[in-house]
Amino acid sequence: xxxxxxxxxxxxxxxxxxxxxxxxxxxxxxxxxxxxxxxxxxxxxxxxxxxxxxxxxxxxxxxxxxxxxxxxxxxxxxxxxxxxxxxxxxxxxxxxxxxxxxxxxxxxxxxxxxxxxxxxxxxxxxxxxxxxxxxxxxxxxxxxxxxxxxxxxxxxxxxxxxxxxxxxxxxxxxx
Length: 175
Hints:
By secondary structure, this protein is of the alpha/beta class. The protein has seven helices and nine strands. The chain has a single domain, classed as Rhodanese-like domain (Oxidized Rhodanese, domain 1, 3-Layer(aba) Sandwich).
């Protein structure tokens, strides 16, 4: 009997110790340096989804862009809706059903994680942060679109420092 009590407490203690750890998913970016940077920037407060899943299920998902207007205006994922970051206002998305499957993205996932958390705090149930965000989307060769709905190769990379993480040579990096 004593052995079972020790086993129970050992399992219980190990579960408690896991509770405080970051929930880092087995998702990764192809470029090791970029993947390391993404992992260092995220808290994993909300579930993440990988690029392949998001691309494959694009028609069933609502993409929300949490970048600055200038970034969105240059290019974005097709049919994405701009919600911004610094000027985010939850009242601007009151028309979205709380059970809609939502993918939030930014440049690498940092800003979109913060916005995703705000959405969840406001009752949105199926919110996911796009791991690697639009940089990894472009690195995988998936299309981005301008404000006229035309495919483009121009991507706003925030600044020169961040542009190093877009390694797809077909992409024209601008800041």
